[in-house]
Structures are given as C-alpha cells and as structure tokens.
Amino acid sequence: MGNFLVWVVWIVAAFACLGSGAAVVSFTNPFYSALALIGNLGSLAVLYLLLSAEFVAAAQVLVYAGAVMVMFLFVIAYLGRDADAPWAGGPSWQALGAVAAAGALMVEIVVVIGLKASGRLTEAPYVGAGFGSPYEIGKLFLTDHLLAFEITSIVLLAAAVGGVVLGTQARDPEPDHPSNSLLQGDVPLR
Amino acid sequence: MGPDLTWYLAVAAFLFAIGTLGVMLRRSPLIILLSIEIMLNGANLAFISFSRHHAEMDGQIFALTVMAVAASEVVVGLGLIVAVHRRRLELDVDKLSTLRG
C-alpha cells in the first residue's frame, strides 16, 4: 500500500514537473511562464521529498519558488509585454534545429546513463532518519564543505552589488556622467 | 520501495532537454532566464537522486550551492534585462547584436 502511494505521488509530481516545464517554454505571456515555473519548482520539491532530501525541498520552496520567483514576477510586471510566440509563422529551420538539438541531447543523456549504469541503479540503500535533515546539512557545510559555504557567500555578495550597480545605472541615464560609462558608452548600441 | 533512480534520472534528462529547447527556441531574454532555471533544476534533481542512491549527502550540498548560484544569476540577469529595457532597446536576443553574436 505504501509502495503504491509512493508511485502515485511520484507520477503526479513528475508529470506536473514536465508539463509545467513545457508550459514555461511554450507560453507567450511571460507572466504565465513564470507562474508555470513556480509549479515546476513546487513539484520538484515533492520529488526531493521522495528522495528524502527534506532540507533541500524546504529551501527549494522558500528560496526558489518564493524569493527568486517574486523577483521574476516583479520584473515581468515592470516590463509588461508579450514575448515572442514560439511557434509563430509555422515551423522555421531554426525551431526545427532547436527541437532536434534538444532531442539529441536528451537521447544522449539517456543512452549514457543506460549504458553506464543500467542494472546498478535499481536498489537504493537504506538511509536513517537524519539523512537530509538540517542538522546533517549544517554539519557538512561547516566541516567538509566549509570552502564552498564561504565562496557561496562571496558569490551572493558580488551578485547583490552587481544588481545594485546595474539598477542604479539603469535608473539614472545621464550620458555625461562618468559613472554611467559602463552602460552608456558613446557608441550607440544599434 | 518506490520508483528507482532511473525514473528520477529520466525526469532530470527531460527537464534539461526542455530547458535547452527554451533557450534555443525563445527570443525573449526573460523566458530564456526561466529556461535556464529549468536546466539548473534538472541538474539539481540528478544531484539529489545520486545523493540518495549513494546515501551520501554531498550531492545535496552541491544542490544547495547551485541554488545560491542560480539566485545570483537571476539577480544579475534581471538587472541586465532592466538596463537593456531602460535604454529603449527591444527585448529580443536576436536584435541585441552589438557584440555580433
């Protein structure tokens, strides 16, 4: 019974994940695309829970589906316009090539996994209740992976400073001001 | 005993392919950023599946780091998109060809 329930949850989450991913790519309105991506991230969090990664699932919902997507939705509401229609004007050679390349990539991944690891991936070992808990994650971050932890903080700081720099230069478009030289060069961009 | 690792990896491969398709197909930089998020999440799902399969939590650590890097990437990407928009340029990656890309 428990086995059956796990399969049902997995099938619902996986198909919601793939369906909303396809929706992100195919919607014309970027607002709908962002909403579909929230669904995608939520169903991925369910898959993470099935893989007993509780902390990552919680972080996925909080950080990704919460903070990052709110930022996306604000920018989309600010820019506020329709994007290109993905299939406008019938299938072009560019679109066909993109579909062929993506399909080839997927076939490649599946074949490599199947060749290298088929038959060895069937049994997952037993893990205790502490697997994926915040306690264990925090212990790993502060012992074995301390360097990654610190570098992540520097990356986040650099991104925050970069976002502020880009934002203030975008807000104050005075061509004569020297601090605008990064984005306001003498040569017009087009 | 639920679905084994192969199913999760198949979902991860599908997600990565969908994200690749979006990056190559769409011309709006906003949707390209969203598609890159899908690709990152496909990779994250593979990391966490292998982490569960080997009963080692290092994969989860890597997934969390990827999440932080993705957040930084979104900040910078959206900042660039807003800067492009402020210069009254069209939000279309085929037309932003100053660098002749």
* Largest beta-sheet details of chain B: none
**Unreliable runs of chain B, pLDDT <50, ≥5 residues?**
none
Order of helices and strands of chain B: HHH
Could you name the CATH class of chain B?
Mainly Alpha
Taken as a percent bin, the fraction of beta residues of chain A is under 5%
Rg of chain B to the nearest angstrom?
A: 17 Å
CATH domain topology of the domain at 1-83 in chain A: Four Helix Bundle (Hemerythrin (Met), subunit A)
Tally of domains of chain B: 1
Name the pair of protein chains with the most residues at their interface, and give those residue counts.
A-B, 90 and 75 residues
Overall form of chain B:
elongated
User: What kind of sheet is the major sheet of chain A?
Assistant: none
Backbone CA Rg of chain A: 22 Å
Which architecture of chain B does the CATH hierarchy give at level 2?
Orthogonal Bundle
Gap between N and C termini of chain B, in Å?
A: 50 Å
Q: Work out the strand percent of chain B.
A: under 5%
Shape of chain A: globular
Average predicted confidence as pLDDT of chain A: 83
Integer average pLDDT of chain B: 88
Task: Characterise this structure.
The complex is a heterodimer of chains A (190) and B (101). The N and C termini of chain A lie far apart (63 Å). Chain A is globular and about 55 Å long. Chain A has helices at residues 2-26, 30-50, 54-79, 93-117, 134-142, 146-171. Among the domains of chain A are: 1-83, Four Helix Bundle (Hemerythrin (Met), subunit A) (Up-down Bundle), CATH 1.20.120; 145-185, no CATH class. Chain A contains 6 helices and no strands. Helices cover 69% and strands 0% of the residues of chain A. The relative contact order of chain B is 0.13. Chain B is built from 3 helices and no strands. Chain B starts with a helix and ends in a 15-residue tail after the last helix. Chain B is mainly alpha-helical and 101 residues long. At the A-B interface, α1, α2, α3, α4 and α5 of A face α1, α2 and α3 of B.
